[in-house]
């Protein structure tokens, strides 16, 4: 037990020392819905309510804070349903924004003890065009990607090792109108990527995770989360021409650690950190994170 605790402390210390950036997924992405996160080995009841808060450092000197509420219900041994509501606040460079994010709805069907299928959607609660003084702000200050997305995934577990393969595809695009070339754009914002008429491509993720039960109340889980952005995103420039954002297609890779602690049979806490390992050259959607740390409370009944 002491040996395992020592390893956890070393890993957490190394995570906090990382300074590179990658695509974050803990605040706005589909990898945070319940069926795509690592399963806890701690005994679970059929229904649970989660309340979470997170913080992180974003690109371009922007800090993020957010909250979410999530509800899971188990209708039968095979079928369950999840719903999740998010909000997000950003601050940096003299700009502050806050808003509701997305509503995630997903249904899960267990084919057998090893395989689970998930089908869902992400419904935006904003059009991603928050403005200040009449000026559209970059995606880095938006509380949602602003897209209606279809989500499908497949989970597999063998012994303790867990795998998830999932796809998120935008069905609509947002209404962001930020243009660096606009003469009214403040100098401090000219370092951001133009996203006027933004057209975002889909993503595929593959998660692998392994939980280690330290005792009947404490579990430590490590995981890798590669996300592949399927094509370059696009935007419309000042002249009305559609342009490709080169380097926005490709792979990002995150490492995650989760620490679950059961307070009693109905209440538990989870602390998790996402760390960047590999990144795409361009991340115009504003999801770049230097780190993301989340604290979650779960009530089971």
Give an overview in words.
- The protein has one domain: Porin (Beta Barrel), CATH 2.40.160.40.
- Helix content is 5%, strand content 52%.
- The chain has one helix and 17 strands.
- The strands form three sheets. A twelve-stranded antiparallel barrel has the order 2-3-4-5-6-9-10-11-12-15-16-17. It has a two-stranded antiparallel sheet with strand order 7-8.
- The radius of gyration is 19 Å and the shape is elongated.
List keywords for this structure.
301 residues, mainly beta, Porin, twelve-stranded antiparallel beta barrel, 17 strands, 5% helix
Tell me briefly what this model is.
The protein is mainly beta. It is built from one helix and 17 strands. The chain has one domain: monomeric porin ompg (Porin), CATH 2.40.160.40.
The quaternary organization reads as single chain
The CATH homology group name: monomeric porin ompg
Number of DSSP helical runs = 1
Main sheet record: 12 strands, antiparallel, barrel
State the helicity in percent bands: under 10%
CATH topology type: Porin
Rg computed from alpha carbons, rounded to a whole number of angstroms: 19 Å
Assess the beta-strand content as a share of residues.
over 45%
Average residue-wise pLDDT: 89
Low-confidence stretches: 9-24
**Using DSSP, what is the number of strands?**
17
CATH architectural name: Beta Barrel
Principal-axes shape call: elongated
């Amino acid at each position: 037990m002491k040996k395992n605790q020592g390893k956890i402390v070393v890993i957490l210390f190394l995570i906090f020392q990382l300074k590179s950036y990658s695509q974050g997924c803990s605040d706005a992405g589909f990898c945070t819905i319940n069926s795509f996160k690592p399963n806890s080995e701690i005994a679970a009841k059929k229904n649970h309510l989660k309340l979470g808060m997170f913080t992180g450092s974003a690109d371009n000197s922007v800090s993020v804070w957010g909250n979410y509420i999530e509800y899971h219900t188990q209708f039968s041994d095979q079928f369950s349903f999840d719903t999740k509501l998010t909000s997000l606040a950003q601050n940096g460079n003299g700009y502050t924004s806050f808003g509701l994010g997305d509503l995630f709805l997903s249904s899960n069907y267990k084919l057998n003890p090893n395989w689970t299928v998930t089908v869902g959607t992400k419904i935006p609660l904003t059009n991603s065009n928050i403005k200040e003084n009449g000026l559209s702000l970059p995606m880095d200050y938006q509380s949602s990607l602003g897209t209606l997305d279809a989500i499908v995934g497949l989970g597999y577990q063998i012994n303790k090792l867990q795998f998830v393969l999932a796809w998120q595809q935008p069905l609509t695009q947002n209404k962001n109108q930020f243009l660096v070339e606009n003469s009214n754009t403040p100098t401090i914002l000219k370092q951001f990527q133009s996203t006027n008429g933004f057209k975002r491509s889909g993503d595929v993720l593959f998660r692998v995770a392994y939980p280690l039960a330290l005792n009947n109340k404490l579990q430590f889980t490590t995981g890798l989360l590669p996300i592949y952005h399927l094509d370059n995103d696009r935007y419309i420039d000042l002249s009305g021409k559609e342009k490709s954002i080169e380097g926005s297609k490709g792979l990002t890779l995150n490492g995650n650690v989760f620490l679950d602690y059961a307070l009693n049979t109905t209440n538990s806490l989870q602390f998790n950190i996402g760390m960047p390992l590999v990144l795409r050259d361009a991340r115009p959607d504003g999801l770049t994170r230097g780190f993301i740390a989340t604290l979650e409370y779960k009530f089971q009944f």
